[in-house]
Write a structure and sequence with these properties.
This protein has seven helices and seven strands. With 250 residues, the protein is of the alpha/beta class. It has a single domain, classed as NAD(P)-binding Rossmann-like Domain (Rossmann fold). The radius of gyration is 17 Å and the shape is globular.
C-alpha cells in the first residue's frame, strides 16, 4: 500500500497557517494531494500562500481569515471546508503563542493571551470539528503541543508550559472519549524555526529564546511528522510524537 494515497483528496483544516509550521504543513500536505483550508489573522499572507499552492496544481487551497480566540471564527473556518469540499477529514489545531517571562514579571495580559490561543483555540477547533467527525464516524485531530508540554520550561516558560500541558491532557482525554473511530494525535516539537520565538516582550527572556533557537530545525521537519500521522491506515492512530533537534537536551 502506498501510504501517500491516504493523504490525497483529504480535506484538512489548519489554524495558524500564515507562517511557520502551519504554512509549511499546508504546502507539504497540498503537495501530496490534500485539499487544505487555511486559517489565520493575516489575510494577505493567506492569500499569497493559497495562490502559490493552487499554482502548483496538486491539492487545492482556500482560506478564511480566522482569529482562534473567537469561536465563531473557528466555526466559520470549519464550515467553509465542508461547504467547499463536502467533508472534513483532519483538523490541525496549530495556532500558538509563546510569551516567555519570569512569573515575577506578572505579565497577566500575556498569560491571558496564551490561554486564549493555546488552550481555548484548540478547544474551539475541537468544538467545531467534533460534531462533523461524529456524524460521519471518521476524522482526525492533530493538536500542536510542545516539549514544554512534556517538561516544564523554566525559568520563564511556566505559563507557556501550563498551556501546552493542557493541550496534551485535552488530547488524551479526547482520545479516550471518541477514539473508537476518530483519531487523535499530539505533536510536541522542540526548537523549530518559526515565528514562535518572537512572542516574548521581556527582553532578557527574548534574548535567551533567540539564542536557544540557534539549534532550531526547519519547520518542514514537523510538516513531515504530521503527514506521517495522517497517512497511516485508518485503523492506526499515532497518538503522540515528540520531535527535537538532535542537539537539544531539553
Amino acid at each position: 500500500m502506498n501510504l501517500t494515497n491516504n493523504i490525497t483528496g483529504k480535506v484538512i483544516v489548519i489554524t495558524g497557517a500564515s507562517s511557520g509550521l502551519g504554512e509549511t504543513t499546508a504546502r507539504h500536505l497540498a503537495s501530496k494531494g490534500a485539499n487544505v483550508v487555511l486559517g489565520a489573522r493575516r489575510e494577505e499572507r493567506l492569500h499569497m500562500i493559497t495562490e502559490e499552492i493552487n499554482a502548483q496544481g496538486n491539492g487545492k487551497a482556500i482560506y478564511v481569515k480566522t482569529d482562534v480566540t473567537k469561536k465563531e471564527d473557528v466555526h466559520a473556518l470549519v464550515d467553509k471546508a465542508v461547504s467547499e469540499f463536502g467533508t472534513l477529514d483532519v483538523m490541525i489545531n496549530n495556532a500558538g503563542l509563546m510569551s516567555i517571562a519570569p512569573m515575577s514579571e506578572i505579565k497577566i495580559d500575556e498569560w491571558d493571551r496564551m490561554i486564549d490561543i493555546n488552550i481555548k483555540g484548540v478547544l474551539y477547533g475541537i468544538a467545531s470539528a467534533l460534531p462533523i467527525f461524529q456524524k460521519q464516524e471518521s476524522g482526525h485531530f492533530i493538536n500542536l503541543s510542545s516539549v514544554a508540554g512534556v517538561k516544564v520550561f523554566s525559568p520563564g516558560g511556566t505559563v507557556y508550559s501550563g498551556t501546552k500541558f493542557a493541550v496534551r491532557a485535552i488530547s488524551e482525554g479526547l482520545r479516550h472519549e471518541v477514539g473508537g473511530k476518530i483519531r487523535t494525535t499530539t505533536i510536541e516539537p522542540g526548537v523549530v524555526d518559526s515565528e514562535l520565538k518572537h512572542g516574548s516582550s521581556h527582553k532578557e527572556s527574548s534574548d535567551f529564546v533567540k539564542d536557544f533557537y540557534q539549534i532550531a530545525i526547519p519547520s518542514d521537519s514537523i510538516a513531515r511528522t504530521i503527514a506521517f500521522a495522517i497517512e497511516q491506515p485508518n485503523d492506526v492512530d499515532v497518538n503522540e510524537i515528540v520531535i527535537r533537534p538532535t542537539a537539544q537536551d531539553f
